[in-house]
Amino acid sequence: MLRWFCGHIRRDRIRNEDIRDRIEVAPMEEKLVQHRLRWFGHVQRRSPEASRLLEKKVLFITGTDEHGEKIATSAEASGRNPKEHCDTVSTSYKMLWADLDIEYDKFIRTTDHKHEAVVNDFYSRVLDSGDIYRADYEGLYCVSCEEYKDEKELLENNCCPVHLKPCVPRKEDNYFFALSKYQHKLEELLTRNPDFVRPSHRLNEVQGWIKSGLRDFSISRASVEWGIPVPNDTKQTIYVWFDALLGYISALLDDGEKAGLQQAIDHGWPASLHLIGKDILRFHAVYWPAMLMSAGLSLPDSVFGHGFLTKVILLILKGNLLNRTLGLLKKNCNSTLAFDSIAAADAVSFRENVENLVDKAMQHYANLLLSSACETVLEIGNLGNLYIDEKAPWSCFKQGGDSAEKAAKDLVIILETMRIIAIALSPITPSLSLRIYTQLGFAEDQFKGLRWEDTKWGGLKAGQVMAEPKPVFARIENETVTGAEAEAGSKAAKGGKKRTRSKGLVEA
Ligand SMILES: [Zn+2]
User: Fold this and answer.
1) Is the pLDDT at 429 greater than 90, yes or no?
2) In whole numbers, what is the pLDDT of the chain averaged over residues?
3) What is the CA(167)–ligand 1 centre distance, in A?
4) pLDDT tens digits along 34-75
5) d(C-alpha 413, C-alpha 485), whole Å
6) Which residue in 33, 37, 93, 466 has the fewest CB atoms around it within 10 Å?
């Protein structure tokens, strides 16, 4: 089964409640990952959404990683028990996603019963494989990172490079996962299937880590009560990797069904694509595949590490190609299409150009080059602008006769183009696309039922009545681009082509 599967759960997101503030700082990447990712002011939907348009099975998951010492500490500081604290924070997230118009299929809380059941089953499988052992661990520990640090990565006074706070010496006995046993298997995996990690420069990064030697890692904590108890030792709780990462699997379970690893797997594991932020690549491209191998589970076909939204892309969508075309149609054709779009575009090469760009956009989506996909769709808008300026239907209508008939056809051509743009951009800008679509006289339900194949020329029929023209958007700025696209950008830069990211311009 082909399943696009994306999402990750960031434990650092649940620490505080000032999510709305922090969302400015870290977050676009977070939003990117799990949801239908959108651009233009709010959030970006990723190409899994385009995949859904292709009628492939897609599951968008998000959630909150709710266990661990620092969460217990935050709860205490706010005078609540950890469960109450997590309830509040996870509710805030749900509200935030609703505010941002981000949709998801599953919201996983790692304190959910079904998640704990999956974690238990998974742990037991790995234990049976002989890959879990107990050992003392002593080192410098960053409470905020919740991990032991190598001394060589620390700053002056043993400060954590992330939190700039001193790490504390700590010693405890923990359970360890024998990652080192999987060194060879992981090397083999990446040699056999270099697409396992994409894009390719991230593959190099991962291969570098593996080559430098894999160390077993701790998977339990003795001093942390707020967590899932280790199945064979209730004095310890399971530490993040054997907890949060399993959210990808427990998300497959439906509410109310018997919770267990096998039941979840039966829903269609593995994912064909696992989409993650680049900062968590080590855990998803090294730890996670080794853990899956140990548990006897299949690996995703590919792990795609996207970058952060550090670049600003300014896409100015000047709201008037659609608006002025509808205005002309209202004035001259009573807001009604006089021709089918197929008849209107008969022998017009414009249609072919649009179709080629739509194909190109689809290829970019398939390759997760979302910025390129978006730019390609915007090119269609530019074509539309050029076309209407060249044909000048406003003066043709004045001439009457054949000229007026030609002008009426040209309006249909532009509106059909806008219809296609609306669909092709819908993985990125669902609300905008809906507004365009309803302006074209369609109902919301028709928009929801759209598939990628509806980008084929010919959707608008004679007799269709357009809605009252009104601007569908204002100027939108501060758009963003992911690392996946940054890669495309750097390619363009190498080719000596100045990237137009600061001026993706389309009129609608
Ligand atoms: Zn730290």
Assistant:
1) no
2) 80
3) 8
4) 322 222 222 223 445 666 677 777 777 888 889 988 889 889
5) 31
6) 93
Pairing of strands 3-6, 57-64: parallel
> What separation in Å is there between the alpha carbon of 245 and the centre of ligand 1?
20
Helix (H) / strand (E) containing 446: helix 444-448
User: Ligand 1 center to residue 183 CA distance, Å?
Assistant: 27
Measured between alpha carbons, how far is residue 3 from residues 25, 101, 269 in Å? 31, 23, 8
* Residue with token string 């090469």: 349
pTM above 0.90, yes or no: no
Q: How many angstroms separate the alpha carbon of residue 417 from the centre of ligand 1?
A: 51
* pLDDT, greater one: 147 or 181: 181
Residue 309 pLDDT grade (very low, low, confident, very high; cuts 50, 70, 90)? low
Burial 49-87 (b: 16+ CB within 10 A, else e): bbbbbbeeebbbbbbbbbbbbbbbebbeeeeeebeebbb
Nearest partner of 231 among 223, 220, 240, 218, judged by Cα: 220
Residue 370: which of 498, 199, 253 has the closest Cα? 199
HSE of 29, CA atoms in CB hemisphere, 13 A:
24
How far is ligand 1, taken at its centre, from the CA of residue 359, in Å?
A: 46
5 three-state secondary structure: strand
Closest C-alpha among 55, 60, 100, 51 to residue 373:
51
Q: How far does residue 163's CA lie from ligand 1's centre (Å)?
A: 4
Q: Tell the burial category of 232 from Cβ atoms under 10 Å away from its Cβ (0-12, 13-18, 19+).
A: exposed
pLDDT at 298 over 70: yes
